Structures are given as structure tokens and as C-alpha cells.
Description:
Blueprint: H1 4-9, E1 11-19, E2 31-34, E3 39-41, E4 47-53, E5 57-62, E6 65-66, E7 70-71, E8 83-84, H2 102-112, H3 114-117, E9 126-127, E10 138-139, H4 141-147, H5 150-175, H6 178-185, H7 191-198, H8 203-208, H9 211-231
Parallel strand pairs: 1-8
Antiparallel strand pairs: 1-4, 2-3, 2-5, 5-6, 5-7, 9-10
Amino acid sequence: MFTLTQAIAQRYPISGTVYDITKKTPVEGVSVISTSGNGTFTDSLGHYTLTVNASDSIYFSYLNKPTPKFAVAGITNTMGFDISILRRVGELPNVFVKQRNYRKDSIQNREDYARIFNYRKPGLRFSTDPTPGGIGAGIDINELINVFRFRKNRSMLAFQDRLIKQEQDKFIDYRFSKGLVRKLTKLDTPDLEDFMKEFRPTYEMAVGYNDLELGQFMIEAFKYYAGQKAKQGITLHYMQ
């Protein structure tokens, strides 16, 4: 029979900090809720502590925008479960920045280096073509030879990785362009370049965020950046 002592033993606290999308500024007033019904809010430092059941999941909600649920059993650091959330805004300033046609350039790049992008590591594969001796399906001889071309294979894979990385970097440049960042933050050289280097988004962010979300990330990052510079007594350079 399941006793009260056993039930209590399966309840324990989970704590952490909720940050904004920059992962540097804590967010106050975020709801932290377990599927068993317990709940709390983050304090002024973004901290929270919530007692949960081992079978619970928890989720966070800010301005009625909930995060996905996180299974407690899958959380390895229950005393430091930190997350970042996107604090959505209704709208961003109207910004239009004429840019090169990234998609057209990307397609052209894929065509120019199609042999590299389509390269796959050789392996033992079977051929259905009859051999000269009349034997039917067998090992693909060309593939077998390529397996032992170690230097060529390493070189091709390394080149492929470089091209993919370059393509991803160009996409980040396209989404996180200097013109757009300048429009949203009003920063000017040299602080503009410094800000863009420090808060350059990852490729996953550039792909996953829509225009509103990416713009909000820039604004939240700028608030943090400006606040840190002010604490250091540094005056930023802005557009005239």
C-alpha cells in the first residue's frame, strides 16, 4: 500500500532562474506551474522555487504565453533549471532595409558547388548491374575503391562542412543585418559593430525566429547592452 511517507519522498523542490531571450536579463513575474496544480512566480531576480512530484511536468507562462512542458524526471539539475523566454511585444518600429536577394544568392551557391553539397561519404553499396562474368547484383566496385581514398574523402567532407558553415553565416548576416540593427537600436560605429559581435544570434535562432521575434531579441539585447555600458560609465555612439 502506498503510504503518506512514500508520497512525501517523491515530492521535492525544483528551482532556477528565468531570463529573457538574451539569456542575461532575469524576468520577474513569470508563472511557474506544475501539472499537479502547484504554482509560483519568479521574483525580482527571476528566481523561482516550486515543490513538484516526481511524475510532474512544469511549464512557464508570461503574459498568457506558455512554454512547452518539461518532464521533471528528465531534468538533471533540479536546483538550477534555468530557461529563457521571449517577451513578446505587440509591434516593432516600421523598418525597411533593402538587402541583397539572399535566396537567389543561396540557390546560385548551391548550383556552383553542387558536387560538394551533394557529396556523401563512400560506403559498401550493392550494384544491380551484371558483371562482365555474368554475375548479377554484387558490390559496387567504384564505391569500394572510393572507400579507401581516405585523403580525398576527408578533404571533400571538410570542404562540404566549410560551405555549409559559410551558408549558415550568410543567412545569419541576412537576418541580423547591420542596417536592421542600426534601425532598431540607433547605434552607430563603433558600438554598432561591438553590439552585433556580442549578440550575434545562432543559426538556429535565425531560422526559428520570425521577424517579430528576432526584432524583439535585438531590442531586449540592446536594453541589456546599454544598461551594462551605463554601469561602466561608457557613453554609446548613436546615429545623428
